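Lecture 7, part B: from sequences to assemblies.

Below are the input chains for today's worked example.
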Amino acid sequence: MVDVVARDVRFHVQRISPPEGAPADRPVVVFLHGLILDNLSSFYYTLAGPVAGTGAETIMYDLRGHGRSQRPPAGYTVDDAVDDLAALLTELGVQQPVFLVGNSFGGVVALRFALRHPHDVAGLVVIEAHTVGDGAGDWTEHMSNTLTVTALGLAHDDLADQLSKLGDRKLARAARLAGELLNGTTLIDDVAATPPLHGPELAAIRCPVLAVYGVHSDLAAAGRQLAGLLPDCTLHMIPDQAHTVLREATPLVRTLVLDWLHRHTAAS
Amino acid sequence: MTAPDTSQLLDHLRADLAEVMGDDVLLAVDITPDTRFDDDLALESIEFVALGEILRERYGERVDFPGFIAGMELDEIMSLTVGRLLAYISDRLAESATV
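Predicted structure of the full complex, as structure tokens:
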């Protein structure tokens, strides 16, 4: 299955299933990637195969506007992403509570999904999520400003065409995709408009959470606050790493996630 | 059923790459077994996922892309040659033809 339509948007979905013989009530793990240049391949090549190998059903999809999913002009708030996920799970016929694994913006979506749909979530793995804790508003504003500057640059410099002429296909495509997302949709305004999750909201998320942050990340303090506010959170700070822990410390993150999932799927 | 030979598999793969990346890739690069997906084709990681899906549609479950890349890290996967993927497809087709 590749294309699934939910909320009138065509989503690119990939699944890696466990070996034959896995029980019908096996755990379902859904992966949520980050913003702009990220897509489901971040998980496809790192966590999904090994997680499926432990007997879980895995589902990955490109968020709206990202990867190979459709890019509608609007609908990029965190609540839209939560609604997209709920609609996709319905389309895919998933009825049991799922484990969500979210990286960066995907972690924010996972947390808010757990807040709004507590009975549909068995547990969360949150990697480097922003918009939590006291500094969240500042961080979101900083990111929004950076994206706005980037968007202006992409619109005026015709960077994609120049890169294409230089023969750098990957960079040219990245610049074109970023330009279309930042200048052709409401993404920047939508992301900036989403308020951070505050203490009482985080305290209401009762499911078990694994939080993974880089020691040198701008979000390291947010990770510690998250762990302090969530009722059932295991925090791992990865040494020598910043925001890109999933990409740069893949084997360690994989071990942490597999161990945590093993303990919590056995419990559920 | 006779398994297709390597040159047929290469022709199929050229067509599949054009479907994923656009026809321009066939004009820009002479795709041979030595061609590297990353350095020579500039294939993006999400496009490699899409290629895996097309291979499954073309050859069925016996060509299992997630199984093929299992145990490899991303850099290793993206630096694979066309020949290495063709060898995997060929082995799997030959295996299922003899069962």
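Note for the exam: The interface with chain A takes residues 42, 44-46, 48-50, 53, 66, 69-70, 73-74, 77 of chain B (CB under 8 Å). Keep this in mind when comparing with the next example.
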